[in-house]
Structures are given as C-alpha cells and as structure tokens.
Amino acid sequence: MIETLKNSVNHWETDENDHLNVRFYVRRMMQTLRLGLRDLGLTAALDEQALLRGLQTQHMRFVREARIAAPVSGWMGVLSASGEPLQILTELRHTGTGEVMAAFVHDFSTQVNHQLQTDPLPAHAGSRGIAAAPVPYARLSLEEALDKGFHRIGRALADPAECDTEGYLEPEHFMGNFSNSMPNLWAHFSPAGDAVERGVTEGGAVLEYRMNYLAPLRAGEGFEIVSGVSELADKTQRFVHLLFNLNTGECCVASEAMAITMDLVARKAISIPAARRQVMEKLLLAPL
C-alpha cells in the first residue's frame, strides 16, 4: 500500500458524538483514492471523472474513533486490476500510532489493463456484519418502500456546490445527506424526552456501511431519502437507507449501516435502552 494523504481532524468536521462525521470519512477516503490513482499513473491514461463515475459500491468499516485534532494519513492499495473490474482498498490511519481508523473497499465497473501490484484484503476490511451484496430493498419504488415501513427522513435539491465539475453529486455528499437526515428517523424511535438525554450522555457510532450506487444525481435534481431499521440486537441496529431521484423516480443509492448505541462518557457500546427498543420493534421494516 502507498501513503497518499496526510492531514488532521478539524473541530467543525465532528458531530454531536464528538468524533469525525461519516461524510468526512468519505471525503478523506475519496481524496486518498484520487491521489492514489494519480500516483499510480492510472488517471494519465484514463479520464478520472469517468473512472470515478464507474464506482459501484463502497464497503466501509469504521474501526476506531477519529477525535478532534487527530493526525490522519490515507493509504491506498489495489485489490484487483489487470483485466478485472478495478477494486481498491483505502485506509485512514492515525499518523502517530499507525492504527487503522477506517477501511473502505471501492468496487468499480471499469476494467484496467495496467499491470499493478495487488494487496490481499486485510481482516479489518471488507464485509463483516453486512453482506457484500446488493441491498434487497433497492428494487422497490418509493411508494413500495413506504408501504414496507420506511420513513421519509430527507428531501432536498442536489446542491451544485456539492457536485463535481460535470455536475454529478459527489459520493461524500450522498453520505452527508444521509447523515443530515438521521435526526428525522430518530424522531420516530425516541420516546418523549429521550432525545435530550441522548444528547448529554448517549449517542451512536457506525461500525459498518455499504453504499450501492445505482444511478447518478445531477445538480438541481430533487431527491428524497427514506429509511428504516431492519434488524435489532442487544447493542446494534441495522439501518436501510434509500435515496430516490424525484425527477426520474429511480433509486440512486441504496445503503445498509450497522450502528451501535454508545456511552459518550465511557466511549463504549451499550445496550439499546428498553423504552426505545419497544418503539423500534413496533416499527421494524416489513421483510420482502
């Protein structure tokens, strides 16, 4: 693997849980990826934007918290190339300790004929709690998703400032819009007064995320996000998020996320509070 990125965590990039927000993990990983593609000479022969639009999935593992002012380095390795669809691994590491904070596997539709050194997939990357497979709910229309118990949690226009030079919404901003919309999902699940308590001593953290990019979203197009919980365990909950293009009706992105409830003082996972669990169990997504 090669080191391509080096910077740190800014205060304004952290969220209510006092750690790097997921959208900025994606930003760091995309910068690591783009710099690495250039360092390997791939974008000299290929159109960089066309290559990136061939991004089909990102499987994300969040291993350690990235707290304020943490020094971070981005590393990139090639998992498969040379006549096969390109698969890239990126890692965000703590510069001081070398510990891996997150690992993303990026799958592209593009085939690259360059002879490149490849690396094996490490144990801390790839699928664990979420299968490396399409999200089953992705085949639903918006109306069918609502019938299955999804909740409307986000609705907006694709901001031109969040799009690439050709007017396509960047991957970090798909994640950013999911993140922005989550409080509206929690509003369905939190008993009265729970949100206030949660803001003081309790929060959450994502352990694993899979983004399936199905169709592009252009600047100025309207979109709607619907979400729900498909599975509950003692400390974890599995979310499903679908983002629909309001102009075309297409599902642009389908994602699954595995998250924990977190004690913000002890910085460790805790059981889902009983009152919230009762509400969430009643509102679980209907199976397909």
Q: Mean pLDDT, rounded to whole units?
A: 91
* CATH level 1 name of the largest domain: Alpha Beta
> What structural category do the secondary elements indicate?
alpha+beta
- Detail the poorly predicted runs: none
Task: Give the helix tally.
Answer: 7
Biggest sheet record: 11 strands, antiparallel
Shape: globular
Strand content: 35-45%
Distance between the termini: 40 Å
- Secondary structure tally: strands: 11
What radius of gyration results from the CA coordinates?
19 Å
Q: CATH topology of the largest domain, which one?
A: Thiol Ester Dehydrase, Chain A
CATH architectural grouping of the largest domain: Roll
Helix content: 10-25%
CATH superfamily caption of the largest domain: Hotdog Thioesterase
What would your notes on this structure say?
The protein is of the alpha+beta class. It folds into 2 domains: 1-126, Hotdog Thioesterase (Thiol Ester Dehydrase, Chain A, Roll), CATH 3.10.129.10; 128-288, Thiol Ester Dehydrase, Chain A, CATH 3.10.129. The chain has 7 helices and 11 strands. Strands 1, 2, 3, 4, 5, 6, 7, 8, 9, 10 and 11 form an 11-stranded antiparallel beta sheet that branches. Strand 10 and strand 11 form a beta hairpin. Helix 1 (22-39) packs antiparallel against helix 5 (171-189). The chain is globular. It starts with a strand and ends in a 6-residue tail after the last helix. The relative contact order is 0.15.
Give keywords.
288 residues; Thiol Ester Dehydrase, Chain A; 7 helices
SSE arrangement:
Blueprint: E1 2-8, H1 22-39, H2 42-45, H3 48-53, E2 55-62, E3 71-80, E4 85-94, E5 100-111, H4 142-147, E6 151-157, H5 171-189, H6 194-201, E7 202-213, E8 222-232, E9 236-245, E10 251-263, E11 268-270, H7 274-282
Antiparallel strand pairs: 1-3, 2-5, 2-7, 3-4, 4-5, 6-8, 7-10, 8-9, 9-10, 10-11
Helix pairs in contact: 1-5
